[in-house]
Amino acid sequence: MHPQVEPAETAQTSETAERSRLDALDKYRILDSEPEARFDDICRLAALVCAAPTAFIGFVAEHREWFKARSGWHIDEINRTDSICNDVIASNDIAITIIEDTLLDPRYCDKALVIGTPFIRFYAGAPIRTREAHAIGVLCVIDKVPRTLSAEQSAVLGMLARQIEALLELRRNIVELEAVIAERDDVQGLLLQAHGDIEATLAELRRSVEATYYLMHTKANATIDGIQLSQYFDTDFPGIFFIINAQGCLAGWNKRVEEVTGYSHDEVQHRRAIDFFDTDELKAVVQGKIETAFEEGSADFEANLMTRSGVKIPYYLASARVEIEGQPYLSGMGIDISATYRSEEAFELRNRAMQACQNAVIITDLNSRVEYVNPAFETMTGYANADILGRNCSVLQRDDTEQPELDNLRQAVRAQTEGSAVLRNYRKNGELFWNVVHIAPVRNHAGIVMHFVGVLNDVTEMKLYEGQLEHRANFDALTHLANRNLLRDRLRQAIIHAQRHKKIVTVGFVDLDNFKLINDRHGHHAGDEVLRTVADRLKACIRAQDTVARYGGDEFAFVLTEQAGEDNVAFLMQRLLRAIALPFMVGQQTMKVSCSIGISLYPRDGLDSDTLLRLADVAMYRAKESGRNTFQFYTSQVNQKVLDRITLETRLRHALENNEFQVEYEPLFNLKSGLIVGAESRLIWTPTDSKAVEPAEFLALAEQTGLIVPIGEWMIHRACLDNKALQKNGLRPIRVGVKIFDSQFNSAGLRKVIDHAITMSGMDARYLELDVTETLLMQNPDASITLLAELKECGLQLTADDVGKGYSSLAYLPRFGLDRLTIAASLVNDIGGDPEQARVARSVISLGHSLNLIVMAEGVRSAEQLAYLKANDCDEIKGELVGPALPFDQLSILLQQDQRVGMA
Ligand SMILES: Nc1nc2c(ncn2[C@@H]2O[C@H](COP(=O)(O)OP(=O)(O)OP(=O)(O)O)[C@@H](O)[C@H]2O)c(=O)[nH]1
């Protein structure tokens, strides 16, 4: 181990790795390339799916990050030192890098792009890697607010990065193929030349045959055996020349024969022609050729000549029969075709590179006529080589030639540059498919463009999938209406149009009234059905060119253009309210639902989409406050009221964590003994920065916002803990009553909350009394019966509050498993004033007793009321006459005194 040399080695290794990464990046020729539609599409889709305002595709070069495509950002490149993507590249991690809040990360909190435009708070980057696994770029989405990505969004981002890699491979294929095709063109030139040489050999052969005749006839005494013919053939011919006699032996030859074979004159003399060849098999072939030439007049063939030293040289050999002095001879010639062989091999090799390319390859001439397609092209298009050779490659578009992207390719061909396009092409069987096409000119060694090469990638499936993603990102799955994304987009477009043409845009915000109850009573499934019905009705009322959207939950919104004035809008709103309020069937049940609508107008109320939507929402709140099932235009007064409500809501949301709630207890007395038998808990809210807020003011808001559920839970815990504390102090045990609010009653998990409160406090459950209003119980009596039975299993006591106020529940009351009834305070109040109401109070007492329930009267203010209740056998009372609600300490003192209240 040499620890001291490690850092230097590591530095060197990373420097080498960086060098090869930069080399790999160069191979794609992507830096500073023209914008390309496909990269732009991917970028836009990444932003849409990840619901991010900005996305970009960046490539990290030596000193800079350069952006190939951007959505929602307008910078071409940044310094590498400012780049967050640089870290993604450096980590060489294949996973997506997510920085949920850059300001909380010391590596990024002071980066220029974090503290300045575009103020990156959230960053997610999927690396783009080469086939050798070098990270060269990143597909990123960024946001101005801290956040994260869902698992699905991460998966889509990764998949889009893979698409970019496939596009890059097309570019790299092109770069590699350009070289291959240029070499192939050069080799083809050599081959043509070699074939020309063979033609020349044959011509020379004819000449030599004639010359041999001439020689033999003019030099009457010449013997031809054993002579070197070169002296008679003063020629530049680079090949060998020979004469073979009837015995198959060399009778004459030129000097080249000895030079090529390495045999001396004497060795060549009378050597059989077949002795210049290697194997017996080959010798037999050559012998056959010689015999053919003697019999038929000529023969030619290719074979390896073997030299004296054993080297084999490929030769093209041709011979013709001649007669010399009445004797048959063969006059023959041969040329070395090693170079041709090599060229052919090279040609084959280049062809194989294109054949093996996974992407479809097409080579055309300068008039776009197809010269070559590889097997992948055949598989992709269904066109075999023979179908398409010589045809214009526009055959792939059939009649669909008006595609704007085709101009990119036409322009590239004209300018003899690279170009790319996303095209609708058609297979041989007529089926449409989507292609990414990248083309480039191919230059020969003299720099002249001879061909164009195109590489095609079938992206049909990807296009379909992207279409689905886009649909999902823009439309609501339940109702198929536009979602808030698309609505905002449409609203922005409508504003631009209205600005140009001096028109009005109407923005409406619709919220269903008391929709929660539908879910609670009939289940989520029925709720969904209601939402779908409302969506259909809204759509039916609004013109097709306008936009209706599901904004979220039970909220809808619409954007209307071309509406002439408020009167028309008001008329339409009335129609809308009526349409929504019509009864409809869900399963076997008839249902009704109403909605509240808020409206804002461009340009009167606001000039941008965010403001208009916010103000329509504000107006909708006002419509709710005006009693629901109505609409309201935005006005500044509306704004003030709603602002007050929103302020209150914000404070209420923090009240629990700020410990701003207390509980007070109103004592309950037994009418016979006069002793305290219970205490009714009451919630008090005193915000830290203001005076106490009236329960009437905040409880309704807590109900509407759903905050009542955690607040109610806290109250149950507090009441149990306080009551147990009294018992721990040795006081006589009493019941503690807790009112259950509507949302609490309907929320899942009330039983769990109660179990938890009882266990945590250690109080015996029988000292807990839950008070539920009769109205609430009767909203869905069957469901109430089930829930109350479940709650009773804990051992607690149940009281029906406000009995006698309205509902006639005689059939149900016995089935609720109650322990007590409380006579409605309004009835008690009327005792002494309205005899009829007093009689109703008396009936409630009899009814309770007939059901074996304890009956309590609340809100007792006067001695007269007390006397009446006592005379009619009411069991328990509370009210200002006998004692107000008290803080825990004072209740404790009161219990310590355990005084009887005079009940005379
Ligand atoms: N069935 C169903 N319910 C949903 C869906 N999305 C949200 N909700 C429910 O819609 C209800 C929205 O209730 P709110 O608008 O807050 O209250 P509300 O009962 O309509 O009362 P107001 O708006 O004050 O009239 C909540 O109970 C949500 O759980 C959904 O996709 N399907």
Automatic annotation (TrEMBL):
Residues 241-297, 346-416 form the PAS domain. The lineage of its organism: Bacteria, Pseudomonadati, Pseudomonadota, Betaproteobacteria, Burkholderiales. Residues 417-471 form the PAC domain. Residues 503-636 form the GGDEF domain. This is EAL domain-containing protein. InterPro entries: Biofilm_reg_signaling (IPR052155), EAL_dom (IPR001633), EAL_sf (IPR035919), GAF (IPR003018), GAF-like_dom_sf (IPR029016), GGDEF_dom (IPR000160), Nucleotide_cyclase (IPR029787), PAC (IPR001610). SUPFAM superfamilies: EAL domain-like (SSF141868), GAF domain-like (SSF55781), Nucleotide cyclase (SSF55073), PYP-like sensor domain (PAS domain) (SSF55785). Residues 645-899 form the EAL domain. It comes from Actimicrobium antarcticum.
